[in-house]
Write a structure and sequence with these properties.
This protein is α/β, with parallel strands linked by helices. It has helices spanning 11-22, 39-46, 58-66, 68-72, 87-96, 108-119, 127-135, 143-153, 158-164, 169-183, 188-197; strands spanning 2-7, 27-33, 50-54, 77-82, 100-103, 124-125. InterPro entries: CheY-like_superfamily, Sig_transdc_resp-reg_C-effctor, Sig_transdc_resp-reg_receiver, Tscrpt_reg_LuxR_C, WalR-like.
């Protein structure tokens, strides 16, 4: 039997996913968690083969990104569920800790297929997410430009950005001009929108 830990913060949705997985002859949902600090403890108690974690809640995202589950239970593979993603977030999840990612809007049989692939030692990326990542162009921004743009998007004033990144105000302005040019935006706000939608920040 494939032992599954299901982590979803909404009880009704979690119950629906549990019922879906439990219909399969080779899958058993051995534990459920709402993601509020109990994921690792539940996993250590039931030692699942796969942890299906909804990362659209902050708690679920923190579990995945911190990697505590992988560190303490390396044999448990993580299949992360999310309603939507960006190419940058997808790469980050796969590079750090996840063995697979799936859309919460995917057909039911895709979740079952994903769980089985992970148990076989394979990775699984929802086809919709994979296509979106392929369609997105390569990030034209340098790591420093990404830092500047993220702070700008948060509303941080230019002078404060310069102080935090140990740059001159003129250098920050030069970075912002380069960002606007590279993204094809007409303004900084336009550049932020384009970069965000493209998954570059």
């Amino acid at each position: 039997m494939i032992r599954v830990l299901l982590v979803q913060h909404t009880r009704l949705v979690r119950g629906a996913f549990a019922a879906l997985l439990s219909r399969e002859d080779d899958i058993e949902v051995v534990a459920e968690a709402d993601g509020d600090g109990d994921v690792v403890a539940r996993a250590l108690a039931c030692r699942p083969d796969v942890a299906v974690i909804d990362v659209d809640s902050r708690a679920g995202e923190e579990v995945a990104v911190r990697g505590e589950l992988r560190e303490r239970l390396p044999e448990c593979r993580m299949l992360l569920m999310m309603a939507s993603t960006t190419p940058e977030r997808l790469r980050r999840m796969l590079d750090l800790h996840a063995a697979g990612v799936i859309s919460t809007n995917a057909p039911p049989d895709r979740l079952v297929h994903g769980v089985r692939k992970l148990v076989r030692g394979q990775r699984f990326v929802d086809p919709e997410f994979a296509l979106a990542a392929l369609d997105a162009g390569a990030n034209p921004l340098t790591p420093r430009e990404v830092e500047v743009l993220r702070l700008t998007a948060d509303g941080t004033p230019t002078r404060e950005i310069a102080e935090r990144l140990c740059l001159s105000v003129a250098t920050v302005r030069n970075h912002l001009s380069a960002i606007t040019r590279k993204t094809g935006g007409r303004t900084r706000i336009d550049a932020i929108r384009i970069a965000t939608e493209s998954g570059w920040v």
